[in-house]
Amino acid sequence: MSIDDVVGRANAELLTHTGAAYGALFVIATAIRATYWQMSGDKIVPSSETFLSLCEPLPADFSGFFAILSDFGPYWTLFSGYWVPMCGVYKVAGGSVTAVVLWQIFLSAATCVLIFDLGRRYFTPLAGLIAGLFMAGMLDNFAWTTRLLSDVMFTFLITLSLWQLHRYRTHRSRANQFILAGILLWLALTKPQGLPVVVVWLTFDLLPRRYDLGYDIIPYRRVSALLAGVLMVPLLAITIPWGLEQGIKSWRDGLLVQFDPTFTYEYVPRAATGAVEFLLVNIDYMIIMAALKTILFYLPVVGRFSLLHNAINMVTLLPVTLFGFAGFVKLIRNRKHVARDLGVPVIVLTAIVAATFIDYSWGYRPPVIPSLALATGYLLTENRWLSTRS
């Protein structure tokens, strides 16, 4: 029996037993996450304490309300897509951290099933299953389920956005359009990195129709673009100077990984009087550091990670990274709409890391894994050395 026959039979079996395959993948993913939770326990970090503080009742008086805005302003707004449902679970369960962890385990396992289903819709059932299994076993995904942070929700919403983008493209309706808009808004409010991802997806709607890359999410595109531009000008005027001032220290110090001096680019910066001038006169160093951060972002082995952590990364993260980017090359040639959908989170989130820094625990990496896992599933089931399909 040829490999093509094996692949064809696997796809046929998965089509016949789709529900059972979804259930089995969910059970596998849940078991892996539950086992990790039993091994590591809950992890309450400073940001988790901030989120839990937001679960307390709001003060009735305006002074108390504005004091909370002053203390937790960025968390109150930029992470509201996470802490609002998280606090709902926390409160309904009587202030139980365990309930929140169980909720995050469910979300993470559901993300694996969503990936499977999306791969089935994009490509073939086998491609989806391969992507879902990689997601299930990826430590970068399940390690965050035990921490009360926005990462699990953000990865779930990236995947849900991809799923709904595909559904809207294949089943155009007003209902699907509104559902997609709601999911994208939720994504933008869950983590600061979400808004740039959403903006880039929406930007495709501003391209001329002859490119056939728009989603048609935005009604009256030119009017909407004008209004968005008017609103964005004051926002950018405030946020860009603030962001430059916040980032200048890490750039000046050559910081590549947050709180880890092991990963530092040693150089002598040229003198400058302000953040913009600093970037301009040191642009060559900025480019070098951006390239180094991009490479380190996908590094599977880190010295201070445990032996088990590095071993799991070598078995899951390394092949997904290598095959995933190779799969993107094939997608760009053969499936431009899929390459557009999956490529935006990878490009935008990698660019943000290149322009800022890598999180100490590589926590910015999980949201790019869904796209890479799907591209891996596509490559492994469509490439000529495994299948004659094109």
Automatic annotation (TrEMBL):
Its membrane topology: Multi-pass membrane protein
An individual GO BP term: positive regulation of DNA-templated transcription
Coiled coil: none
GO cellular component: plasma membrane
PROSITE patterns recorded: TBOX_3
Alphabetic keyword roster: Cell membrane, Glycosyltransferase, Membrane, Transferase, Transmembrane, Transmembrane helix
Domain T-box intervals: 102-182
Places the protein is found: Cell membrane
TM region positions: 20-37, 58-76, 96-116, 123-142, 148-166, 178-204, 224-244, 278-299, 311-332, 344-362
GO molecular function: DNA-binding transcription factor activity; pentosyltransferase activity
Stored PANTHER family: MANNOSYLTRANSFERASE YKCB-RELATED, MEMBRANE PROTEIN
The protein's name in its UniProt record: Glycosyltransferase family 39 protein
Organism: Halosimplex rubrum
